[in-house]
Specification:
Blueprint: H1 3-28, H2 56-85, H3 92-114, H4 119-143, H5 153-179, H6 195-223, H7 226-255, H8 260-283
Helix pairs in contact: 1-2, 1-4, 1-8, 2-3, 3-4, 4-5, 4-8, 5-6, 5-8, 6-7, 7-8
């Protein structure tokens, strides 16, 4: 693949991850209703105006997140054009999924605003980003021909369990957020779940993920050999390290009263955990089976 192709695929993956971070900035600054309508920012204007109720700062933070969606759309469109010109038919469906998913993000974003930050709409917005990151990571790996390895059945099943549990941990994490103080606006509705109870469930699932990953490392040690064992084990160790760091940040934010900067670090950590899980799944050819 040419340098242009590598740049496009890498940019698409980076922007998908950045959308989660900027979305977190919207939520943590209470800017979720900075632009109170959709697709306009305010009635009669697609851009923020000086006299908005939520204030111009909140409006521009929310508007900046919307602009990133446009950047993502054009990046996905450029990727599809490149894929068609390079005749990489094996990449077409994945690149089309990116474009359609970004359009879906725009629709979900509108629903989120029009429902005044309904926590389940916010969670759906985030979870779609998780799927799009997985798709962008797979698209990039296939585009640049990253090495993949055939695993033994027990190792494959354990790796799939790790990926599934990671997804469930992140999903429950969105419920924790929707139950706590950082829902995007002081007037935004919450899920109604007890924040402490759902946070404990989330923490227990993270502990289970840690032990499952240790089980994967044992399975790799016993069932794989040679280059396969070396490469996948290294990837699994990196994943375990990221999960441990993310767990530590989670405990710090919980016992310090959820300060915004620590919560932001936890959000970035969630993105890195998912990226590491996708990398593990891709190298083990889990998506190919």
């Amino acid at each position: 693949m040419s340098k242009v192709g590598r740049f496009l695929l890498s940019s698409l993956l980076f922007l998908q991850c950045a959308l989660i971070v900027t979305g977190g900035a919207v939520r943590l600054t209470g800017s979720g209703l900075g632009c109170p309508t959709w697709p306009e920012c305010t009635p009669g204007s697609y851009t923020p105006t000086p006299h908005q109720v939520e204030g111009p700062v909140h409006a521009w933070i929310e508007f900046g997140n919307r602009l990133l969606t446009f950047a993502l759309f054009f990046a996905a469109l450029a990727t599809i054009i490149y894929v068609l010109k390079s005749r990489r038919r094996d990449l077409f469906l994945l690149s089309l999924f990116q474009l359609l998913g970004i359009l879906g993000q725009g629709v979900l974003g509108g629903i989120t605003v029009l429902t005044h930050l309904n926590p389940y709409a916010v969670a759906s917005h985030f979870i779609l980003s998780i799927f799009l990151i997985a798709g962008a990571a797979l698209l990039r790996s296939r585009g640049v021909n990253m090495p993949q390895y055939q695993l033994q059945r027990i190792t494959t099943l354990t790796s799939r369990a790790v990926l599934l549990l990671t997804f469930l941990v992140i999903t429950v994490g969105t419920v924790v957020t929707g139950s706590g103080p950082h829902a995007g606006d002081i007037k935004a509705p919450r899920t109604g779940f007890d924040p402490r109870t759902i946070a404990i469930l989330h923490a227990d699932m993270v502990i289970a993920l840690i032990f499952l990953t240790i089980g994967l490392l044992i399975a790799l040690r016993l069932g794989e050999s040679g280059d396969t064992q070396s490469k996948i084990t290294r990837t699994a160790v990196i994943f375990l390290g990221v999960v441990l760091a993310q767990g530590l940040i989670g405990y710090v934010q919980y016992f310090t009263g959820l300060p915004e900067l620590i919560v932001a670090a936890h959000l970035v950590g969630a993105t890195l955990v998912w990226l590491a899980a996708c990398n593990l799944a891709i190298q083990g050819r889990i998506f190919a089976r």
